[in-house]
Write a structure and sequence with these properties.
The complex is a heterodimer of chains A (about 160) and B (about 375). Chain A has about 160 residues and is α+β, with helices and mostly antiparallel strands. Chain A has two domains: about 40 residues; about 90 residues, Alpha-Beta Plaits, CATH 3.30.70. Chain A contains five helices and six strands, in the order H-H-H-E-H-E-E-H-E-E-E. A four-stranded antiparallel β-sheet of chain A has the order 2-3-1-4. Chain A is extended. Chain B is α/β, with parallel strands linked by helices and about 375 residues long. Chain B has two domains: about 130 residues, Aspartate Aminotransferase, domain 1 (Alpha-Beta Complex), CATH 3.90.1150.10; about 220 residues, Aspartate Aminotransferase, domain 2. Chain B is about 45% helix and about 15% strand. Chain B has 13 helices and twelve strands. The radius of gyration of chain B is 21 Å and the shape is globular. The chains are: A alpha+beta (about 160), B alpha/beta (about 375).
């Protein structure tokens, strides 16, 4: 049944009917399993992968930046309290504890470069125990979460072959 | 002008060609007529090919092929199927199974020797037998028996001139996987009548319900069996033209002899890419196979739901449904379906007389296209009622 999760992760639009056929199980069983996963929070939600650069009129209305954050750890909580505080902002799309020169790596989204800069200088860097930040603006997305954003290769096959 | 070669002149062009010509002219065609994967070669394999080009691997290799590749192939056969071949004396790299088949037939046959060919079968089997100076002898397999080869029917076709039996499993066009009992029956026949066996196993990794049985590993078969395999299907490497032959030393040696004069070697870059395929791409293969399996289930069920009888094909990426309920012969069915609904399939009769009443549908096509094809075929069937 684990296969269902892998399939949905790749294409959440597959119907229960198709999923059931694909893995050779009764549709009722598949539906019940999915409902159980939704209930348990294994499946948190379903969403679409959008290539915003292709949407008319929304070009450059959103910018993304990776922000590396250095944090002074505190006894008892380490980095957790700061990480959680940062994660609560809607602007922050992801936040990881990482090894290397900084401690946290965050993805921040804003309507323009100014908005992201303001967020970093006014919100992030002023949090207690945040000692430094480094901001990397995304110029172009080539691949995100396993999806490539360049044109798929055309089908070079002949139409009918032995 | 003096006449050209009689055997080749007498060989009819493939029935597939005609459908290709029609389909190539049309727009908005959904093609279920393609006998190759819809996946592009996995990137890590392509990248290995690019690396090989960059570093100048543009030369000949030894006639038999890169030792590293032959070692890997033999290790894989042993690991997967318990088939044992010595990489240095019993294995050679060919430019696809197509060349491998040609080599095997040329090495095994003397003029006038007969080769029993269960059909429906891949379109090249009979012509290749003829080109090698042999005579193909068809043995029908029946849809009702899942196209399993009946050793008794094969035995009835054996004459003093019979030299070999040529089979493909999993099969193009039927998707049938030969049950172990049928393979064992063929081996008994081969022992009894002193025959060779040629086993085209290009679809070996594409089995969905049962594990593939390598004919070379069936007890008694090894000394009289030529196993053909390659990278075109499971690794999606059709255009690289790289395959292999594993056979007893005496046969393999003569295959290398023909190969060294006619082909010299398989493309060097392709052989390097094939090494990568065996060393690193097993995960890619497993993912592609899992994907074919899911499409197989959806497509076969879809065919049944629109009224075409179609047992679940056990291997390859073809469904071979019966279209007898339509009242049309397979050629007319395929031609009208193409003209009226722009869906290209291959009529079953081009694979032998037992393919009449069927069409070959490749499900190596994206799922949404398969679903649209089903809608169109359903509409076409409706128009016939």
């Amino acid at each position: 049944m684990r296969e269902i999760l892998e399939l949905l992760e790749r294409d959440a639009s597959l119907s229960h009917d198709t999923l059931a056929t694909m893995i050779g199980r009764p549709v009722a069983e598949v539906s019940a399993q999915i409902a159980a996963w939704e209930e348990a929070g294994v499946i948190r939600r379903y969403k679409a992968v959008v290539d915003w650069e292709k949407v008319d009129g929304t070009e450059a209305t959103e910018v993304t930046a990776f922000i590396d954050v250095a944090v002074a750890p505190a006894r008892g909580v380490g980095f957790d309290d700061v990480a959680e505080r940062i994660s609560r902002f809607d602007e922050v799309r992801s936040c990881y504890l990482v090894s290397g020169g900084h401690d946290l790596r965050c993805t921040v989204v804003g309507s323009n470069i100014r908005a992201v800069s303001d967020f970093v200088s006014r919100k992030l860097s002023t949090i207690d125990r945040v000692t430094a930040t480094a901001t990397h603006f995304v110029l172009h997305t080539h691949k995100r979460d396993g999806d490539t954003f360049f044109e798929p290769e055309p089908d070079h096959r002949l139409r009918v072959t032995p | 002008m003096k006449p050209l070669n009689d055997v080749i002149s007498a060989c009819p062009p493939s029935g597939i060609r005609r459908f290709f010509d029609i389909a190539a002219e049309m727009d908005d065609v959904i093609s279920l007529g393609v006998g190759e994967p819809d996946f592009v070669t996995p990137w890590r394999i392509r990248e290995a090919g690019i690396f090989a080009l960059e570093h100048g691997y543009t030369t000949y290799t030894s006639n038999a092929g890169l030792p590293q590749l032959r070692r890997l192939i033999c290790a894989e056969l042993e690991k997967r199927y318990a088939a044992q071949y010595a990489w240095d004396t019993e294995c050679l790299i060919t430019t696809g199974v197509s060349e491998g088949l040609d080599l095997a037939l040329r090495v095994l046959l003397n003029p006038g020797d007969e080769v029993v060919v269960p059909e429906p079968c891949y379109v090249a089997y009979e012509p290749c037998v003829s080109f090698a100076g042999g005579t193909p002898v068809r043995v029908a397999t029946r849809w009702e028996a899942d196209f399993a080869i009946d050793p008794a029917a094969v035995e009835a076709a054996i004459t003093p001139r019979t030299k070999a039996i040529l089979i493909g499993s999993p099969a193009n066009p039927t998707g049938a996987v030969q049950p172990r009992a049928a393979l064992e029956g063929l081996v008994r026949l081969a022992e009894k009548h002193d025959l060779y066996l040629i086993s085209d196993e290009i679809y070996d990794r594409l089995t969905y319900d049962d594990t593939h049985v390598c004919l070379g590993a069936v007890p008694g078969a090894r000394e009289r069996t030529v196993v053909l395999g390659g990278f075109s299907k499971a690794q999606a490497m059709t255009g690289w033209r790289v395959g292999w032959i594993c056979a007893p030393q005496a046969v393999a040696e003569l295959c290398v002899r023909v190969h060294q004069y006619t082909m010299l070697c398989a493309p060097h870059v392709s052989q390097i890419a094939a090494v990568e395929a065996l060393e690193e791409a097993d995960g890619d293969v497993r993912e592609m196979v899992a994907d074919y399996d899911r499409r197989r289930r959806v497509f076969a069920k879809g065919l049944r739901e629109i009224g075409l009888e179609c047992p679940e094909p056990g291997g390859a990426f073809y469904a071979f449904p019966s279209i007898r309920s339509s009242g049309l012969d397979s050629e007319t069915f395929a031609e009208r379906l193409l003209h009226e609904e722009s869906v290209a399939v291959v009529p079953g009769n081009v694979f032998g007389p037992s393919g009449e009443g069927h069409i070959r549908c490749s499900y190596a096509t994206a799922l949404p296209q398969l679903e649209e094809a089903l809608v169109r075929i359903d509409r076409f069937l409706g128009s016939l009622r």
